[in-house]
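User: Can you recover a sequence for this backbone? Please restate the input before giving your answer.

Assistant: Of course. Working from this structure:
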């Protein structure tokens, strides 16, 4: 019997700050599960393994603990890379690229190839002119220390290529692996009657305050809001709901292991962010036939909401348009879209093909 050919990129090392429930870390764990299933060795340098995503750690993933969950602990990565000697260093998102630069500077020619995923918008909606200029200058350096960049859609790949000043040959498009139902995941109580669902961390970027402010303006006055996720703004958002007399109509579910059943039960999923990379929650909603209302928060929106039958896109900050769109999809006569199969079922394999090609070239 012929022996199985050894993979070229046999060992992949990545790193993360915590398992607090961010989309970047969740996507990495899904990819790692696929890589491990193909016989690759996968190592994760991790600041803190306590968090909602702990249950999603795949069997076989080697964890190298860092000193703490603070961001600065990640700058110990060069010593780990030197000791582990991976074939590929995978930077799972924009949040972590400064660590990739530090590792390349410290290791020089001994640094493995660095592949980074462009996980967030290159144009941030929360920057003033000075910060925007600084951020643009920082992004412009990325082509000097990253060997390859992976974006999740063609439009975001084009934006990343221009912002990072990187050769198109060094940019690939690979979507995130899709969410799958999790067997045995606990269910959560759902609001009575029709409800809107929002899924994501309770952080300023997501602008959940817009969604809560829209609730008392909706015709009929019987729709509720279910927010799935947690974060530093939880108390502020609860206080906002109470001040608007909506405390009994805004439900805070916290982190949910499998949000798909709740998304499928909602009349509409809403995303009200100032900026995003490629919001996977929109694909998750459309995958179960739930329409979406979303702000035009990323170049990827037209690539996801490809038809008015799937949902409505509004400008960030257009409160009247947001209310009108929500009312449209909350109406009993609104037709739910036909489920759209999300891309990415083969994403882990596509990453491995990329890694092997880069290592062998």
């Amino acid at each position: 019997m012929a022996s199985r050919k050894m993979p070229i990129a046999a060992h992949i090392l990545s790193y993360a700050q915590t398992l607090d429930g961010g989309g970047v870390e969740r996507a990495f764990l899904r990819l790692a599960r696929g890589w491990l299933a193909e016989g690759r060795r996968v190592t994760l340098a991790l600041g803190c393994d306590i968090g909602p995503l702990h249950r999603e750690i795949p069997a076989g993933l080697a964890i190298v603990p860092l000193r703490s969950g603070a961001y600065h602990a990640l700058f110990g990565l060069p010593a780990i890379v030197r000791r582990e000697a991976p074939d590929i260093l995978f930077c799972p998102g924009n949040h972590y690229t400064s660590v990739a630069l530090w590792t390349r500077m410290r290791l020089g020619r001994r640094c493995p190839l660095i592949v980074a995923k462009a996980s967030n918008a290159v144009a941030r909606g929360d920057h003033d002119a000075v910060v925007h200029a600084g951020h643009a200058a920082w992004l412009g350096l990325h082509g000097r220390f990253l060997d390859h960049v992976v974006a999740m859609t063609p439009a975001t790949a084009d934006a990343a290529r221009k912002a990072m000043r990187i050769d198109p040959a060094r940019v690939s498009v690979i979507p995130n692996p899709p969410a799958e139902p999790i067997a045995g995941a606990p269910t959560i109580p759902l609001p009575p009657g029709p409800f809107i669902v929002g899924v994501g961390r309770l952080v300023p970027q997501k602008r959940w305050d817009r969604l809560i402010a829209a609730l008392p303006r909706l015709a009929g006055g019987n729709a509720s809001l279910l927010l799935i996720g947690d974060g530093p703004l939880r108390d502020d958002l609860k206080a906002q709901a109470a001040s608007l007399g909506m405390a009994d109509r805004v439900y805070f579910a916290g982190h949910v292991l499998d949000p798909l059943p709740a998304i499928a039960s909602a009349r509409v999923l809403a995303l009200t962010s100032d900026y995003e990379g490629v919001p996977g929650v929109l694909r998750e909603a459309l995958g179960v036939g739930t329409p979406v209302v979303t702000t035009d928060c990323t170049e990827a929106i037209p690539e996801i909401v490809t038809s008015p039958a799937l949902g409505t896109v509004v400008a960030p900050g257009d409160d009247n348009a947001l209310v009108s769109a929500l009312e449209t999809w909350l109406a009993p006569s609104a037709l739910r879209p036909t489920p759209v199969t999300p891309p990415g079922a083969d994403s882990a394999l596509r990453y491995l093909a990329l890694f092997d090609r880069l290592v062998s070239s």
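That completes the design. Residues 23-37 form the longest helix (15 residues).
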